[in-house]
């Protein structure tokens, strides 16, 4: 089987880390066809659109997409983030952010959790307005039964696949009785269909504290868009932060895998960016494609290069971006 992968480097360090991830994928005994597309500020400057329709077509044609990062220009009126648009247009409803301890002093020990964030609704539907001559601003928080059910279902499926027996649904139903309340009710209903899992619930503020106090106690955390945005960033800082945090955006028809970090303009073109977040995202893509054996190998090797400090300066190493990719490829020969 030949896997067709859309490759969207984007801006800044995006193309560098995606190149590193591609090299790692090419070192595996699998067949790839790359569909390279443009996205971001560079694409806007060339084509007047940060997400050209050709790029959307590539994503739709591909089995999966690997995406780097984009730069948001400071003051271009009416500029719409291509990342949000991509998630909406392709209905990539689930954002998965795994957080696992790494063998490095910046990481807390024994953490193995997954944040599952609803990606399409909540306060992020963009229904904001000014009232009272601009003296009052109002945003609508939209929660639907359909989105709540499907995010809980994918959370429970992920819990089974990853052997994480605990699924914690996180909400604020004590205050947001209708919106968070609906999410809570539907998620508990769906959770009841998974008797092999331990489903429990937590208020979002408690969860923010517990993540710091006892991160080892969590398995899957499933929540609505805004809470998930915040908690997933918090969780990634427990285990090494931006240079390592990887993510998946999953839809019914396709999926987009991306490092959590942005385009880090100050590092661009200097061979300094840590590629492990992009390489970890490529490992998540391998899982999605059904190549879970190779996904586990890549994850194992990421841990080994960190343990041996074959890493970039952000993790205390002296290697460049592409040197880390080469180290990963070298270590892959021995697993
Ligand atoms: P950033 O993630 O680009 O950088 C934050 C800090 O982390 C910087 O100090 C940077 O040097 C460091 N860093 C990030 N990735 C790294 C890596 N792979 N290796 C080593 N160090 C790394 O976030 P920032 O600076 O807030 O935003 C820069 C640009 O990226 C902005 O235009 C922003 O809008 C965009 N952005 C794009 C995202 C995306 O494409 N999904 C996500 C976040 C920001
Ligand atoms: Mg990103």
TrEMBL record:
Top-level taxon of origin: Bacteria
Pathway(s) per entry: Amino-acid biosynthesis; L-lysine biosynthesis via AAA pathway; L-alpha-aminoadipate from 2-oxoglutarate: step 4/5
One Pfam family hit: Iso_dh
Keyword entries, A-Z: Magnesium, Metal-binding, NAD, Oxidoreductase
Class of this enzyme: oxidoreductase
PROSITE patterns in the record: IDH_IMDH
Reactions performed catalytically: D-threo-isocitrate + NAD(+) = 2-oxoglutarate + CO2 + NADH; (2R,3S)-homoisocitrate + NAD(+) = 2-oxoadipate + CO2 + NADH
Any one Gene Ontology BP term: tricarboxylic acid cycle
Database matches in InterPro entries: IsoCit/isopropylmalate_DH_CS (IPR019818), IsoPropMal-DH-like_dom (IPR024084)
Molecular-function GO term, any one: magnesium ion binding
Residue intervals of the Isopropylmalate dehydrogenase-like domain: 4-328
Cofactor(s) needed for function: Mg(2+)
Enzyme Commission code: 1.1.1.286
Keyword Oxidoreductase: yes
Function text: Catalyzes the NAD(+)-dependent oxidative decarboxylation of homoisocitrate to 2-oxoadipate (alpha-ketoadipate), a reaction involved in lysine biosynthesis through the alpha-aminoadipate pathway. In addition, has high activity with isocitrate, but is inactive with 3-isopropylmalate.
Subunit structure of this chain's protein: Homotetramer. Dimer of dimers. The homotetramer can transiently dissociate into homodimers.
Family that this chain belongs to: Belongs to the isocitrate and isopropylmalate dehydrogenases family.
Protein's name in the database: Isocitrate/homoisocitrate dehydrogenase
Gene source species: Anaerolinea thermophila (strain DSM 14523 / JCM 11388 / NBRC 100420 / UNI-1)
């Amino acid at each position: 089987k030949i896997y067709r992968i859309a490759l969207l480097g984007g801006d800044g360090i995006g193309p560098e880390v995606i190149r590193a991830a591609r090299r790692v994928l090419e070192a595996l005994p699998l067949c790839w066809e790359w569909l390279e597309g443009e996205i971001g500020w560079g694409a806007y400057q060339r084509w007047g659109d940060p997400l050209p329709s050709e790029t959307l077509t590539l994503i739709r044609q591909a089995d999966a997409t690997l995406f780097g990062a984009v730069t948001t220009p400071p003051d271009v009126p009416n500029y719409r983030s291509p990342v949000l648009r991509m998630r909406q247009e392709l209905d990539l409803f689930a954002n998965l952010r795994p957080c696992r301890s790494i063998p490095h002093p910046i990481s807390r020990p024994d953490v193995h959790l997954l944040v599952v964030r609803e990606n399409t609704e909540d306060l992020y539907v963009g229904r904001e307005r000014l009232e009272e001559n601009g003296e009052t601003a109002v945003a609508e928080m939209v929660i639907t039964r359909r989105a709540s059910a499907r995010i809980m279902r994918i959370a429970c499926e992920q819990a089974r696949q990853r052997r994480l027996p605990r699924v914690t649904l996180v909400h604020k139903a004590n205050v947001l009785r209708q919106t968070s309340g609906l999410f809570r009710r539907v998620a508990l209903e769906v959770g009841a269909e998974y008797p092999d899992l331990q489903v429990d619930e937590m208020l979002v503020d408690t969860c923010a504290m517990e993540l710091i106090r006892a991160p080892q106690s969590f398995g899957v955390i499933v929540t609505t868009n805004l809470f998930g945005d915040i908690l997933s960033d918090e969780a990634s800082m427990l285990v090494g932060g931006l240079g390592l945090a990887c993510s998946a955006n999953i839809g019914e028809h396709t999926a987009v895998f991306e490092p959590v970090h942005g385009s880090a303009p100050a590092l661009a073109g200097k061979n300094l960016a840590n590629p492990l977040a992009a390489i970890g995202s490529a490992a998540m893509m391998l899982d999605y494609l059904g190549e879970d054996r190779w996904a586990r190998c890549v994850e194992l090797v990421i841990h080994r290069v960190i343990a041996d400090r074959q890493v970039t300066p952000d993790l205390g190493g002296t290697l460049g971006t592409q040197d880390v990719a080469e180290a990963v490829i070298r270590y892959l020969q021995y697993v």
